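WARN retry 2 of 3 for item q-0093 after timeout on previous attempt; input resubmitted unchanged.
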Amino acid sequence: MRNAPSDAAFAEAMQTAFKPFLRFVFAQYLSVADELDDAPTVRILRHAVLDLDEQVNRLRAARTTGRWQAERPPIAPATAGGRG
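OK item q-0093 returned
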């Protein structure tokens, strides 16, 4: 994703591939997890699934309204020390 050809391509990949895949994997784990033995992990992953749903919806809205590029700050070039 670092080499996405554009901001729009990056947003599309996050919205349609990466985040939905994470959500799918987390949901699969939750479907077989033991609520008692895995309680801390279940709690975290339930929240992660909700967060991913919200992120995908926000990405979709940003892409459909064209706000993706307008809200994204410019990326500073890296210096010799590796920091921007």
